User: Which sequence fits this backbone?
């Protein structure tokens, strides 16, 4: 794995996240007339909810590309896990086919992602183990719970999200857009930024491990 390859992976993620942050801050600071305040708030909530999918997509591109980059450096653990006899060093295209060629990678949560990486990456090339579950991983998992609710508005997804709200001391259910647009009392910033910070922190933890 050339260092430039993994640097590009992190830069792509950081550039997209910076763009998302700047755009959402602009949306947050846009003021409508007094009469249209409620309507303006509703529009902002809808934009924030749409960006839940965008932010999750950024994270999924990062994790998929990192799995490929790190497998590209050493396939020993992948061979051991699968029982296949394969060369230690393969091209990135071949590694990509090994990772994503069989179908869509859909990780249930950060723990699932870390477990998958552990199965196929040698420890020295496994940056995913550096993601701290608390609070970073937990926040990413909660953000995905919001995404799952927004994806189909199922009763089960709503109940799971409501349960996470209750752990924060919230007594009633709030739509993700309303929740994310509001300010977090502990951090003094909008909640959307609290969750974005968790994704960025996880990326930094992995980049530091890889010497980026």
Assistant:
């Amino acid at each position: 794995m050339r260092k430039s390859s993994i640097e590009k992976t992190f830069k792509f993620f950081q550039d997209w996240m910076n763009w998302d942050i700047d755009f959402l801050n602009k949306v947050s600071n846009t003021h409508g007339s007094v009469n249209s305040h409620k309507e303006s708030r509703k529009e902002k909530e809808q934009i924030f909810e749409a960006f839940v999918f965008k932010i999750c997509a950024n994270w999924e591109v990062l994790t998929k590309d990192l799995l490929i980059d790190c497998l590209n450096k050493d396939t020993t653990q992948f061979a051991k896990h699968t029982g296949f006899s394969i060369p230690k060093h393969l091209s990135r295209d071949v590694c990509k086919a090994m990772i994503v060629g069989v179908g869509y990678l859909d990780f249930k949560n950060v723990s699932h992602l870390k477990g998958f990486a552990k199965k196929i990456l040698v420890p020295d090339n496994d940056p995913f183990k550096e993601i701290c579950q608390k609070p970073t991983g937990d926040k990413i998992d909660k953000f995905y719970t919001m995404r799952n609710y927004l994806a189909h508005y199922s009763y089960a997804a709503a109940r799971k999200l409501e349960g996470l709200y209750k752990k924060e001391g919230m007594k009633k259910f709030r739509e993700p857009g309303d929740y994310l647009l509001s300010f977090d009392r502990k951090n003094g910033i909008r909640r959307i930024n609290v969750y974005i910070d968790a994704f960025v922190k996880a990326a930094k933890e992995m980049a530091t491990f890889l010497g980026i």
